[in-house]
Write a structure and sequence with these properties.
Blueprint (H helix, E strand, L loop, with lengths): L3 H6 L1 H7 L8 H5 L24 H11 L1 H12 L8 E6 L4 E6 L2 E2 L1 H5 L4 H4 L3 E6 L7 E4 H17 L7 E5 L4 H13 L2 E4 L6 H11 L3 E5 L2 E3 L2 E3 L1 H9 L7 E5 L12 E3 H6 L10 E2 L3 E6 L9 E5 L1 H15 L6 E4 L6 H13 L3 E5 L10 H9 L3 E4 L1 H9 L3 H4 L8 E5 L5 H11 L5 E5 L32 E5 L11 E8 L8 E2 L3 H9 L5 E10 L5 E6 L4 E3 L2 E3 L1 H9 L4 E11 L3 E10 L8 H18 L8 E4 L13 H9 L15 H11 L3
Parallel strand pairs: 4-17, 6-7, 6-8, 7-14, 8-11, 11-12, 16-17, 16-18, 18-19, 19-20, 29-30
Antiparallel strand pairs: 1-2, 3-13, 4-5, 9-10, 14-15, 15-23, 21-22, 22-24, 24-25, 26-27, 28-29
Helix pairs in contact: 4-5, 8-9, 10-11, 13-14, 16-18, 22-23
The protein binds adenosine-5'-triphosphate and magnesium ion.
Keywords: ATP-binding, Ligase, Nucleotide-binding
Protein name: Acetyl-coenzyme A synthetase
EC number: 6.2.1.1
């Protein structure tokens, strides 16, 4: 048996030697696949079991050596085509010309639903884990088909046409999935806006996408609290001239005012035929657009294609998590986030799987919620964010140990770097040391997981995203754009090539797409993140490039400093930013949240912890990295997907209180005022 470590440690030199054919090469375009000869109706999901085996290495190599054959075979096997494609890929990265499976015709809702009717009509497609625990609802593929068709017919009557953009402002519930798939059935592009946004945040996204319709609910429910969603839509739509009709689904059933452009979706669906024809779409037609989290600036309306995205979401779902038919897969997060799209809806449904839609929060009705749900629904793969893991870690192991978690096989993390302490807790306390942990790095822009171990992979390290998925060439560049080859290198992470799942544009802002991702390093897709490849060839994400600190000439990523601070037993979470310093260039400014039960605002207790933290960093990383300032607060500013917004913390550290910037995507804007108050006291 080969050891994965041995194999992997050789990879950088292998990838270094690879010459990726220039995408513009005529040879590549001319390399037409014999696709015209097939018309696949194969609905099986039996991917070979590559997770963690030496097979990974050979599949990876094939995917790099000959991407067209690799993805072409996968597309033939896993997508249901109305018409086969003619050209597997044509990619001119510098112009943002990315096309996969040109000439192919298909429909996403047919691929996610109709495709399964023959083999698994009565299998569970969705389990809706409502905000109220213990009242889950199960939807079979057969039910899903009928609901999607009824909704598609309703939308058609309401005037939705191919290529219209439909905004969804809905809680995580089956109707949101019906709506996504109903749009796809009609060839309309969906744009899901997270249900926590204010009327202004929603209006900005509707206007930027020029949506014609909004689908919403009467009211949402989260952690027992009622959210007046229809009311928010009314306020938003008043500022959105493009909206023709608002369709309202039932969630609480409480009466809400209905105006002249409002339609009762449930009533309309009842009177609609449960069959609807599906528009025949081209591979490259847009399936959806989705705004990024806004961690680093104004959100971008990232647009994804149909065929390439579906294929990439299904392949990554299957391989990274080792999803097997009959498994129950749960993403504990919101559908309004790319992870909800790729691993709450499209990946699992493409694979004929069962996906849990989790409407609640990790703390409702108590800190055992995740674990009670795992036990009750017998969840096999659990996917969530480091911020949720850190929150639950703080509450103590008793909450986890109360429940039977023996169904769990793979535990995934996404959204931010997971610090080793949280990783170890996830592995040992939640996974009891017998589950695979997959720390998955990717972005809204990449459509699916790009760097992650595969389930069963033994050659992993706490905190490392580890290795690329099939077809991904992660390149580490120096500031001049030179590729840093070999191991033990650190720089900016860029992706050489654009695989099938990559974003195609920023909706109606292609120039911004080029400026943001493709012009910084010609020939590469620039991620905005920093990364290092360690001595064993494992990839670590070091944080956002904008967040990298330069202290007395030492460059240091936020992830490393934060991991060290978080390892303090009384620290729950932290965020580090740089502050201008005349002598050092930058000094380290740390924001810290203490463990439950540790008193914030108790100056003596805080001072002890701060002294301790400074000592630890000096000892473990070096005196240069010692924070000059530390603020303890019970909360840090976060996006709706739980990411810490360091750009706000940077402004607070700099004392630039009036230049905080766009905080519309902030989940907890109140905490900014507290931080400013504490910061002012330092002057
Ligand atoms: P915006 O692009 O608007 O600033 P955002 O980047 O937070 O928002 P997303 O696309 O949801 O929006 O997040 C992708 C980013 O999240 C990555 O670029 C990376 O910084 C971070 N990230 C995601 N997963 C991981 C991970 N496993 N390890 C480290 N960082 C991660
Ligand atoms: Mg981003």
């Amino acid at each position: 048996m080969f050891s994965m470590r041995v194999l992997w440690s050789r990879l950088p030199s292998v990838t270094g030697a690879l010459t990726v054919r220039p995408p513009s090469s005529l040879a590549r375009i001319a390399q037409r696949v014999s696709a015209t000869t097939f018309h696949s109706r194969d609905t099986s999901i039996d991917y070979p079991d590559a997770g963690g085996s030496p097979e990974y290495k050979s599949m990876y190599q094939r995917s790099i050596d000959d991407p067209d054959t690799f993805w072409g075979l996968a597309a033939k096997k896993h997508l249901l085509w109305e018409r086969p494609y003619d050209i597997t890929s044509s990619v001119f990265l510098e112009e943002g010309f990315i096309s996969w499976f040109h000439g192919g015709k298909l429909n996403a809702s047919v691929n996610c639903v109709d495709k399964h009717i023959k083999l698994r009509a009565n299998a569970t497609a969705l389990i809706w884990e409502k905000d109220e625990p213990g009242q889950e609802e199960r939807i079979t593929y057969h039910m899903l088909l009928s609901k999607v068709c009824r909704m598609a017919n309703t939308l058609r009557r309401a005037g939705v046409r191919k290529y219209d953009v439909v905004t969804l402002y809905m809680p995580t519930m089956p109707e949101a999935v019906y709506a996504m798939l109903a749009c796809a059935r009609l060839g309309a592009t969906h744009s899901v806006v997270f249900a926590g946004f204010s009327a202004d945040g929603l209006a900005a996204r509707i206007n930027s996408s020029n949506s014609t319709h909004v689908i919403t609910v009467d009211e949402g429910v989260r952690a027992g609290k009622i959210l007046p969603m229809k009311k928010t839509v009314d306020e938003a739509v008043a500022k959105c001239p493009s909206i023709k009709q608002v369709l309202v689904c039932k969630r609480t059933g409480n009466p809400v005012p209905m105006g002249p452009i409002d339609l009762d979706m449930n009533l309309e669906m009842k009177n609609s035929r449960p069959y609807s024809t599906a528009e025949v779409m081209s591979s490259e037609d847009l399936l959806f657009l989705l705004y990024t989290s806004g961690s680093t600036g104004a959100p971008k309306g990232i647009a994804h294609s149909t065929a390439g995205y579906l294929l990439y979401a299904s392949m990554t779902h299957k391989y990274v998590f080792d999803y097997k038919e009959g498994d129950v897969f749960a993403f504990f997060g919101d559908l309004g986030w790319i992870t909800g799209h790729s691993y709450g809806v499209y990946g699992p449904l493409m694979n004929g799987g069962t996906s849990v839609l989790f409407e609640s929060t990790p703390a409702y009705p108590d800190y055992g919620r995740f674990w009670e749900t795992v036990e009750r629904l017998k969840i096999n793969q659990l996917y969530t964010s480091p911020t949720a893991i850190r929150l639950l870690l703080q509450q103590g192991d008793e909450w986890v140990n109360k429940y039977d978690l023996s169904s769990l096989k793979t535990l995934g993390s996404v959204g931010e770097a997971i610090n080793p302490e949280a990783y170890n807790w996830y592995r040992d306390v939640v996974g009891k040391g017998r589950c695979s942990i997959v720390d998955t790095w990717w972005q809204t822009e990449t459509g699916g997981i790009m760097i992650s171990p595969l389930a069963h992979d033994k050659d992993t390290k706490a905190g490392a995203a580890t290795r690329p998925f099939f077809g991904v060439i992660p390149s580490i560049l120096d500031p001049n754009g030179n590729e840093l080859e070999g191991n033990d290198v650190e720089g900016v992470l860029a992706i050489k090539t654009a695989g099938p799942g990559m974003a195609r544009t920023i909706y109606r802002q292609h120039e911004r797409f080029l400026e943001t991702y493709l012009k910084p390093f010609p020939g590469y897709f620039y991620t905005g993140d920093g990364a290092k490849r360690d001595k064993d060839g494992h990839i670590w994400i070091t944080g956002r490039v904008d967040d990298v600190l330069n202290v007395s000439g030492h460059r240091i990523g936020t992830a490393e400093l934060e991991a060290e601070i978080n390892s303090h037993p009384l620290v729950a979470e932290s965020a580090v930013v740089g502050r201008h310093d005349d002598i050092k260039g930058q000094s380290v400014f740390a924001y810290v949240t203490l463990m439950q039960g540790t008193k914030h605002n108790d100056p003596a207790a805080e001072a002890d912890i701060v002294t301790d933290l400074k000592k630890r960093i000096s000892a473990k990383i070096g005196g240069f990295a010692r924070p000059d300032n530390v603020i303890c607060n019970n909360d840090l500013p976060k996006t709706n997907s739980g990411k810490i917004m360091r750009r706000i913390l940077r402004k607070v550290a700099a004392g630039e209180y009036t230049e905080i910037g766009d905080i519309s995507t902030l989940n907890n804007p109140d905490c900014v005022a507290n931080l400013i108050e504490k910061r002012k006291k330092m002057d």
